[in-house]
């Protein structure tokens, strides 16, 4: 079956269809990791996007429950050079094709993903429509012109109820803006008592949960689309120890008076070098974001730049000058990716334990 991909700059691509028989509109982005396609596809930060996998062969490991980063995929399309129809992996439970069909997600294979990636790098992220239904180009053009990229992604991917993961250590309230399972895994393996709450939970409601600290999770979209969350973070920042990841990093920055902006094509993949400005160490990191904190907006705030991306010099980490709060733009829980930065969870835990010890002495 034929699949068609139409981009807003007029680019037309035809290829082999796989996944669901449907039509979807979304933001077309690329991910540069050589491995971990399942984790990428189940990362809530990809909500509403059509993901180009730059590694040419996708699907050879199939799909298994062990590698999920959320309960489902929120992407609107998958674009690959070659789709493996016969996966070979000891954990494989079903093919990528079957899994995409179940999720209502279309895929297109047999296209020049290198050309697409170079186009996005040159001109920026593009809106696109992907069809596996055989719809003619003029119909797709009408849908592309009439459609708009969603702005309510956080509400779509966040938990709707409070979830408890009991532990004997410090209590961490995880504000779920689209949290990957990896974040909760890193906290629970360190003994933390984790309480995940919906993205729009108020500061007063969080106070009643008695946290030792707050973790602001990753998530999709523009941080300025959730102004209520920014206001809540501003209140929590003055009361609790705080750690922000991904979108949580951007919300922390906005709450502290900094500004954010959309990047030309963002950072997505498991091989991005980041420099720690305090130690001078270089970390290879996993990333998935299309917005960044403007470094020129930090001058009038109490924030210090702690990490930068070596590829383009953008902000990758912040720390508050007077409050026990810090954040990183990348994913220290990886999945997929290297574990260079897992120590950041240890740093957060140390802050929480110092707080508990101080309260016990008082």
Describe the protein:
This protein has 362 residues and is α/β, with parallel strands linked by helices. The chain folds into two domains: 149 residues, Glucose Oxidase, domain 1 (3-Layer(bba) Sandwich), CATH 3.50.30.20; 208 residues, 3-Layer(aba) Sandwich (Rossmann fold), CATH 3.40.50. Helix content is 25%, strand content 32%. Strands 10-12-11-13-14-19-18-17-15-16 form a ten-stranded mixed β-sheet, with helices on both faces. It has a seven-stranded mixed beta barrel with strand order 1-2-8-6-4-3-9. The protein has a two-stranded parallel sheet with strand order 5-7. Helix 8 packs across helix 9. The longest helix has 19 residues. The radius of gyration is 20 Å and the shape is globular. The mean pLDDT is 95. Composed of two chains; the small (or glutamine) chain promotes the hydrolysis of glutamine to ammonia, which is used by the large (or ammonia) chain to synthesize carbamoyl phosphate. Tetramer of heterodimers (alpha,beta)4. It catalyses: L-glutamine + H2O = L-glutamate + NH4(+); hydrogencarbonate + L-glutamine + 2 ATP + H2O = carbamoyl phosphate + L-glutamate + 2 ADP + phosphate + 2 H(+). Its EC number is 6.3.5.5. It is an enzyme of class 6 (ligase).
Largest sheet: 10 strands, mixed
Q: Could you name the CATH class of the largest domain?
A: Alpha Beta
Radius of gyration: 20 Å
What is the count of structural domains?
2
Q: What is the residue-averaged pLDDT?
A: 95
Number of helices: 10
Order of helices and strands: EEEHEEEEHEHEHHEEHEHEHEHEEEEEH
Strand percentage lies at: 25-35%
Q: In order across it, which strands form the biggest sheet?
A: 10-12-11-13-14-19-18-17-15-16
Q: Which CATH-level-2 architecture of the largest domain?
A: 3-Layer(aba) Sandwich
Taking pLDDT < 50 over at least 5 consecutive residues as the criterion, the unreliable ranges are none
The helix content, as a percent range, equals 25-40%
Shape: globular
Family: Belongs to the CarA family.
Binding site for L-glutamine: 45, 219, 221, 247, 250, 288, 290-291
Catalytic activity: L-glutamine + H2O = L-glutamate + NH4(+); hydrogencarbonate + L-glutamine + 2 ATP + H2O = carbamoyl phosphate + L-glutamate + 2 ADP + phosphate + 2 H(+)
Pathway: Pyrimidine metabolism; UMP biosynthesis via de novo pathway; (S)-dihydroorotate from bicarbonate: step 1/3; Amino-acid biosynthesis; L-arginine biosynthesis; carbamoyl phosphate from bicarbonate: step 1/1
């Amino acid at each position: 079956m034929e699949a068609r991909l139409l981009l807003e700059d007029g680019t037309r691509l035809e290829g082999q269809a796989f996944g669901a028989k449907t039509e979807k509109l979304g933001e077309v982005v690329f991910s540069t990791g050589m491995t971990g396609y399942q984790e990428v596809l189940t990362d809530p930060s990809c909500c509403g996007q059509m993901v180009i996998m730059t590694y040419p062969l996708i699907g050879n490991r199939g799909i298994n429950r062990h590698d999920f980063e959320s309960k489902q995929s929120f992407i609107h399309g998958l674009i690959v050079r070659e789709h493996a129809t016969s996966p070979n992996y000891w954990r494989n439970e079903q093919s990528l094709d079957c899994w995409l069909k179940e999720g209502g997600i279309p895929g297109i294979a047999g296209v020049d993903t290198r050309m697409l990636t170079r186009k996005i790098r040159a001109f920026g992220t593009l809106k696109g429509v992907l069809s596996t239904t055989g719809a003619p180009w003029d119909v797709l053009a009408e849908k592309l012109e009439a459609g708009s990229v969603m702005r309510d992604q956080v509400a779509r991917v966040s938990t709707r109820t409070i979830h408890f993961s009991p532990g004997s250590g410090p209590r961490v309230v995880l504000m779920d803006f689209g949290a990957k399972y990896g974040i909760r895994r890193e906290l629970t393996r360190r003994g933390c008592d984790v309480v995940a709450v919906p993205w729009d939970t108020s500061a007063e409601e969080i106070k009643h949960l008695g946290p030792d600290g707050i973790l602001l999770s990753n998530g999709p979209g523009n941080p300025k689309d959730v102004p209520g969350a920014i206001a809540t973070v501003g209140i929590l920042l003055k009361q609790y120890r705080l750690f922000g990841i991904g979108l949580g990093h951007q919300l922390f920055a906005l709450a502290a008076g900094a500004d954010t902006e959309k990047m030309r094509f963002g950072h997505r993949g498991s091989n991005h070098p980041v420099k720690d400005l305090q130690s001078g160490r270089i970390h290879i990191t996993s990333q998935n974001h299309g917005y960044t904190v403007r470094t020129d907006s930090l001058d009038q705030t109490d924030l210090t730049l702690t990490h930068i991306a070596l590829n383009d010099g953008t902000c990758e980490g912040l720390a508050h000058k007077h409050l026990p709060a810090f954040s990183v733009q990348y994913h220290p829980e990886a999945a997929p990716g290297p574990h260079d930065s897992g120590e950041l969870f240890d740093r957060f835990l140390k802050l929480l334990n110092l707080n508990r010890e101080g309260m016990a002495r008082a």
